[in-house]
Design goal:
By secondary structure, the chain is an all-alpha fold. It is built from 4 helices and no strands.
Length: 89
């Protein structure tokens, strides 16, 4: 038996429903700080160094996060670009 439930709500409504805190101000501060850091970088090597410092597990973490985001986009949009790992049946 397979049951699907679809809920149409905004991300804010979903966070409130699940009891998660509102982190929009913290996110805004983080994005502003990262924007300033990128704007103040003198050369590409500084950007690379900064990316390696903030990325958990370095390059492996970045690739894992990239695959996570791509998988979410494929699931949400139904369009897959590289290798389908899901099986339906």
């Amino acid at each position: 038996m397979k049951i699907n439930i679809e809920i149409d709500c905004t991300p804010q409504e979903a966070r409130e429903f699940m009891g998660l805190p509102d982190v929009s101000e913290a996110n805004k501060a983080f994005v502003d700080g990262m924007t300033k850091a990128v704007e103040n970088a003198q050369n590409p090597a500084q950007l690379l160094e900064m990316g390696q410092m903030i990325a958990p597990m370095g390059q492996a973490g970045l690739k894992l996060f990239q695959s996570f985001v791509e998988g979410g986009m494929r699931a949400a949009g139904g369009s897959g670009s590289s290798g389908s790992k899901s099986s339906k049946g």
